[in-house]
Request: fold
Amino acid sequence: MPPRSNSQTPLLDVSLPLSPRTIAFPGDPVVEIEMAKGAGNDDDAVVHRLCMGSHAGTHLDAPAHVIRGGLTLAEVGLEPLIGECTVVDCTQCEQSIDAAFLRKQEIPPVRRVLLKTKNSALLSATDFDFNYVYLTPDGATFLVELGASLVGIDYLSIGQMGPLGVETHKILLANQVLILEGLDLSQVAPGGYELLCLPLKLDVPDGAPVRALLRPLKEAADAGRTGLAPGRESRT
Ligand SMILES: [Zn+2]
Reply:
């Protein structure tokens, strides 16, 4: 029997707010928002104009992001984006998450793996922090071999800055493992959840912002293994 989600437990919103204050990956467009309609006395409605990159805030990377001819946003199935997931505690990792570390964690055989690092504390900063914790290429290979179909992390890139980071992306995306980036896991305890996450239906190939939610699984919540991190209040 599949694990049941706990409808009495509040949904945890693990998405970043999108505003001009949202940090952007170096070289990517920053979020710009301005009122397009509504400021004038004759306007009968309020509408804003948005300008941002397709990888702004919490977002999905489709294979076409780094693989020529790879599956596009429209072509990836939505099934990997909804269902059971596990949040792995990587907060002890100082610089990177590698295969040796992941091998020592008892990651259950689920298809969706979210890596919680100390990066979550960096997401509300005003500037991009180049010292973020990343997944190494051999860590990516480990998760592919584990059978993951989606891997998420709590910063704007899952890989290191530069060619090694591109390699991490390629290993995952070439094996049809979707990547979720920019998750705010600061309020989330490690353990089992239901992930609910859908990208905007943008007509671009590479990726799109998402609204991502976690709901503790009933069995795990009953055992006190998931939910809000100790001492935290729900923000949803
Ligand atoms: Zn991305």
